[in-house]
Amino acid sequence: MTTGLVTATRAGRTAAARLAEHWADTRHYAVADLARAWRECDEIVCFLAVGAAVRLIAPLLGDKRTDPGVVCVDEAGRFAVAVAGGHAGGANGLAHRVADALGAQPVVTTATDATGTSPLDAIGMPVEGDVAAVTRAMLDGDEVALASDATWPLPPLPVTAAGEGRGAPCVLVTDRLVETPRPAVVVRPPSLVVGVGGSRGVTAEEVLELVAATLDEAGLAAASVARLATADVKAGEPGIVAAARALGVPLVAHPAGRLAEVDVPNPSEVVREAVGTPSVAEAAALADGGDLVVPKRKSAMATAAVARIRPRGRLAIVGLGPGARDLLTPRAVAELRRASHVVGLDQYVAQVRDLLRPGTRVVESGLGAEEERARSAVRLAREGHAVALLGSGDAGVYAMASPALENADDTFDVVGVPGVTAMLAASALLGAPLGHDHCAISLSDLHTPWEAIERRVAAAAEADLVVAFYNPRSRARGWQLPRALEILARRRPAGTPVGVVTDASRPGESVALSTLGDLDVETVTMRSLVIVGSSRSRVVAGRFVTPREYTWQR
């Protein structure tokens, strides 16, 4: 990605130099050379007034799908304004990147960004049709239909009808070549695998012509081709390699032995003798599963076949952090805005509801329904949806990742999004209690027998580990924390520091330091996290510290 930096003044050149220090591939241009920057760069930052930039780029504008994105930065460096190529040219994202680098305010006026609506031309798949008309209908709250040949993990869309509707504007997800007489956007999912074979010396032109003819005769869209596939003995054939490059898709090679195990309708003994498998094109198309939709076709030196692969849903297991919005990671925000379905505890959903895009389906339930939420998230992902399953702190720590993955299979993709755990949030408030070896133990015996919990506490005491107690005490469970502290007290002094943090980073946050001998357990609630130091922990200037005990080399 090459970024052109166009400047006219000393202030502009200074700001451009700041960007160039941190960005990998930048080129500097004077205003008089803007046309050259337009030809040579993928994106352009103009350190000019917006009006001046508009007049300069107006004669250069061609197609928003190929024009570079343009952002303007004012003389004082206050604003980074996306001027042209918002989605297709990447100007909206560029405005945010420039603003982050310069400490400016990003200004993005694209309607979908202003309303938080998923932009159709940045859906993550190729799109065709009247994007403007369908987007306008969505923004106006008009009826918009959604029709799909299969369920793909799309971002949320504010559609109001399923199926192709009654003449309403439509979003159609298909790999078929279709007529769209009304305002429609056709989304091309990556659903087709083209298996190819070829004799030695086959040209890229012949492979491309055969692939195009095969798709066209079957009424299939080239934009839905996810990859070319072939046998490993053909993976280095220049014509096949060049054809994949021309189509802009990866070339996947399979061992002949694997292809020989694939059941195909048109095996050939001649091919088996030549390459070790009775089929190259059909077997390669089917090697990763799916259904054969076009049996092999031949040209003079090439073969091609097409398979349709099944959609894979997407489950993002998202840690929301301890509660404060500024401790919610950018990656978590991105996953929340990408998911068409959000599953979570009702109070966690309320915490992030304002971040969800219009059209997001929310599945929420109350305390005690963890397994039900995990099963719901897995079911939706298995159906092909883009799902975000919410957990507090880090979703993998006493939260939703474990029950979800226990129920998962390999039919969908899983993405883990780490979050700031309660233990880390509490530790930061207390000082550095986790500075050396430590462990976390939940004192809830709802799912774990108390005898097992007690053995773990005893082992931590024996190992002299700092211990963070989750779920330390509730109205119904008042005796477990005192018992755990008693076990620890057998192995460490009564003056060992103990920190109690309640509602870390949330309204009502409280932080208290005590000792193993003096802790008042009545101050501890289910919303607290208790950290008990090791025998080496101490309080320094009012802060709970566990020394690292390293020998520093000079």
From TrEMBL:
The keyword Plastid does not apply. The keyword Nuclease does not apply. Keywords: Cobalamin biosynthesis, Methyltransferase, S-adenosyl-L-methionine, Transferase. Pathway: Cofactor biosynthesis; adenosylcobalamin biosynthesis. Residues 192-307 form the CobE/GbiG C-terminal domain. Pfam families: CbiG_C, CbiG_N, TP_methylase. Residues 314-519 form the Tetrapyrrole methylase domain. InterPro entries: 4pyrrol_Mease, 4pyrrol_Methylase_sf, 4pyrrole_Mease_sub1, 4pyrrole_Mease_sub2, CbiG_N, Cbl_synth_CobJ/CibH_dom, CobE/GbiG_C, CobE/GbiG_C_sf. CDD domains: Precorrin_3B_C17_MT (cd11646). Residues 34-113 form the Cobalamin synthesis G N-terminal domain. It comes from the Bacteria. PANTHER family: COBALT-FACTOR III C(17)-METHYLTRANSFERASE-RELATED (PTHR47036). This is Precorrin-3B C(17)-methyltransferase. It comes from Microbispora corallina.
